[in-house]
Amino acid sequence: MPQLSWSFSLLRVTPDPLDTSFVFEDMAAFQAYLASPLVYVGQIVAVRNATNTPDVYLIHEDRTYGGFAGGGAPSTGGRFVHTQAATAAVWPITHNLGQQYVLVQAVNGNVTMIPDVTFDSANACTLTFAQARSGTAIIRS
Q1: Is residue 113 packed enough to be buried (19+ CB in 10 Å), middle (13-18) or exposed (0-12)?
Q2: Of the candidates 36, 7, 1, 6, the residue with the CA atom closest to the CA atom of residue 20
Q3: Please, where are the H alpha helices in 1-141?
Q4: In the 8-state DSSP scheme, what is residue 124?
Q5: Cβ pair 24, 45 in contact under 8 A
Q6: Could you identify which of 44, 57, 120, 131 might form a hypothetical disulfide with 124, taking C-beta atoms 3.0 to 4.6 angstroms apart as the criterion?
Q7: Are 26 and 61 contained in the same domain?
């Protein structure tokens, strides 16, 4: 299996495995993957950008994608940033985006954290971590 020529860190807080189609060296490789039969709805992928850092995207039903950060095709709709200053294992978030299923990214410094997400309503979600954490959650509709 080929190895990537760059790296980034993810703080894993759930036991779910990362599949082999999770990371792409560039946007051209990602675009080719979108046209393949391997792509699936709801998949979260990382694509290396010009600054050698990952842009993270969620794949939609029509094979378009919404972004967590920069580059490519950012998600349409609203955006809400939640700052969790006090460490907590559960972050209840009222985002008021009017959409129950939203794209969620949780970060602390340069580390992307992967929480369990409960979609409570069209205007709220709850992030649950294995350990108490502080950081920022970016919610996109």
Answers
A1: buried
A2: 1
A3: 27-34
A4: E
A5: yes
A6: 120
A7: yes
Q: Is residue 2 part of a domain?
A: no
Q: What is the pLDDT of residues 69-95, one digit of tens each?
A: 433 333 345 778 888 999 999 999 998
Residue 61, in any domain of the structure: yes
- State whether 101 and 63 are in the same domain: no
For tokens 């994608």, name the residue. 65
Q: How far is CA 43 from CA 54, 56, 83, 108, 117, in A?
A: 15, 10, 25, 22, 15
pTM here is 0.50
At CB < 8 A and 24+ separation, what contacts does 27-36 make? 27/71, 27/72, 30/57, 30/72, 34/59, 34/63, 34/65, 35/63
pLDDT tens, residue by residue, 103-134: 787 887 777 788 888 889 888 999 999 899 99
Q: Which secondary structure element, helix H or strand E, spans residue 112, and what is its range?
A: strand 111-114
Structural domain count of the chain: 2
Q: Evaluate whether residue 25 is within a structural domain.
A: yes
